[in-house]
Prior knowledge:
It is a single chain. The protein is an alpha/beta fold. Helix content is 40%, strand content 13%. It contains seven helices and five strands, in the order E-H-E-H-E-H-E-H-E-H-H-H. Strands 3-2-1-4-5 form a five-stranded parallel sheet, sandwiched between helices. The chain is globular, with a radius of gyration of 17 Å. The model has no long low-confidence stretch (mean pLDDT 96). The structure holds nicotinamide-adenine-dinucleotide (NAD). Nicotinamide-adenine-dinucleotide (NAD) binds next to strand 1, helix 1 and helix 4. It catalyses: beta-nicotinamide D-ribonucleotide + ATP + H(+) = diphosphate + NAD(+). GO terms for molecular function: ATP binding; nicotinamide-nucleotide adenylyltransferase activity.
Amino acid sequence: MRAFLIGRWQPFHKGHLEIIKKISAEVDEIIVGIGSCQKSHTLTDPFTAGERMMMITKTLENYDINYYAIPIIDIDYNAVWVSSVESLTPPFTTIYTGNSLVRELFSERNYVVKKPELYNRTDYSGTKIRKKMLDGSAWEHLVPEEVVKVIEEIDGINRIRRLSEKDYDEE
Ligand code: NAD
């Protein structure tokens, strides 16, 4: 059985790794969709699809998991988004998602939709990790060590800080 899991992975954190490990015990192959692949260089989506691909593939090299990682572009047309996903991925029967819009769109197309369990959502949250990266708090323990290395390689923390700079001094 092949299943689909889509996320923005901004960045890929330990909660994401836990759900992939859990799903891999239930299915033969996982298709990891790298959602909003066209987005990067913003405070909510700082990393490119290629950088997120590195975070996922370098982390999953350490595990015996059969997966495909596939960039998935957003389209401003929810009613046909599932067809767009289908055009980019191997066939699958089941989707795991905690996102209500994704759940609704795939349910309407008769996919089996499962909700993955959340792991330590208090700490394992992309929004909170990006905030820590910006304000100088420790974030490294919240992501796999390969993700730390990728973010160092691309100088990701300085990117986020530069993106947060104001164009002018506020009075
Ligand atoms: P996300 O990165 O926030 O989350 C990815 C998955 O990880 C989710 O299923 C979430 O429940 C799970 N997760 C998060 N924290 C966790 C934790 N601590 N423990 C366990 N699991 C955890 O991504 P998302 O918002 O679900 O991504 C949806 C993607 O689909 C986005 O890129 C969105 O733009 C795209 N989308 C596009 C369209 C369109 O183009 N029309 C429509 C719907 C969705």
